[in-house]
Design a protein that fits this description.
single chain, about 450 residues, Rossmann fold, 6-stranded mixed β-sheet, globular, binds pyridoxal-5'-phosphate
Amino acid sequence: MLFHSTRGADKNKSFEEILMQGLASDGGLFMPDEWPQVDLNLLKKQKTFIDVAKHIVPLYTSSSFMESEVLELLDDTWHDFSNEDFAPIYKLDEEKSILELFHGPTGAFKDFGLQLAAAFFNKTLQKNNKTAVVLGATSGDTGSAAIDACKRFNAIKSFILLPDRNMSDIQRRQMTTVNSDNVFTILVDGSFDDCQDIVKQGFQERSFLKDDQYLLAVNSINWVRIIGQICYYFYASMVVNNFSKSLNFAVPTGNFGNVFACYAASKMGMPLEKIIVAVNDNNILDRFFRSNDYSRKDVYETLSPSMDISVASNFERLIYDLYAERDPEICAKLYTAFPNAPIELDEKIWMKSNDIFLSHTVRNDDTIANMRYVKNTYNYLVDPHTAVGTSAVDYLNKKLKGHTLILSTAHPAKFPDVIEEAGLELSEIPRNLSDAMQGKEYGVKMPASKDDIFKFIIKNN
Ligand SMILES: *Cc1c(COP(=O)(O)O)cnc(C)c1O
């Protein structure tokens, strides 16, 4: 199994190459050369999440790792989950259930993808006797999941930039309270955009790296993160009905990574009814699925901050696979013009969406109202991101056939202010989150200056 870029320049890349490279050299995203097929009869006989992962992950890694190596790695990949069943399902009623993806150490679904990424980063570094610097900017859950996933590997040093303002206490503390020799959280006196600019320059200059050192990104376009997420779609389908009936999946989304993993699972053989693409006011995806309008607008701050984006980076993979039918020329043309020219597809081609996708925009008011509704009706507390999913399902209810799994992407305790605004109460706070609320903070404050920050990296690298 080899990989290529959605824009055509990179071809025949091994898993190891795309893992360490992240983004393709032409600005495109890496895709597998074909969709490997999963044997559902074999999967039906599995029990745990790890059993399932062992039938998915090796399908993508064979170009670089022996199957036995990967199986061994997977036994030790996902760690510090507070629930034995990594992704338990909570039934709301006959029509819908919640797939709880927040039991990982940082309380958001990103632990699934980033723990797998870190395990493979480390394996590759060991094999080649190299070390790596992880450099990333974060305004939310990616940073904490990346830090947590990488901190147990000495060959990786993580430098994570976060805006000193504009972040919830708990999200900041989840990063700054980590006390580890190979983790550096830098509180930048600036905005998230300032942080991102410095990271971008870092990837161009690479001046702070030692010889033979990798520079790794942890953003959501790395294919390995998608693999980690494909696993829980198969796992959930197995648990709900052993693949006997196709399910709907409602996914609160921003960058489309989690939705694309669901689409990928269906391409690999998982029975699928519909994917409900649930977004907040940053609704470029809903505008596309409703009216063929994929145009960039300014970012609004909403109650579901981890979905506040202006473009959905992983959406390029869907354009490439579904609409362009894997013609990299079409994809390259659309994306070279974007975002100056919006993406608008030929009407007939765009109609393909209807077979798979439904979408809905959930505004702040409805997010709050739905959190109350779900609590009052089912005695179940959802976080504001998950509420975007449950609210969209309520709205689209009449169009849905069969059972719906709503992905819960974060633990409600990560967003205490919104819970309070809704007049609700948290009944339990997971250990990891309460520890973060109490611990000493080790983050370093720095001005938004790339020179200062690169110097800091050199000193600590
Ligand atoms: C990152 C994140 C999302 C969005 O995930 P995508 O893969 O971009 O769709 C949704 N909810 C939470 C809590 C997140 O952290």
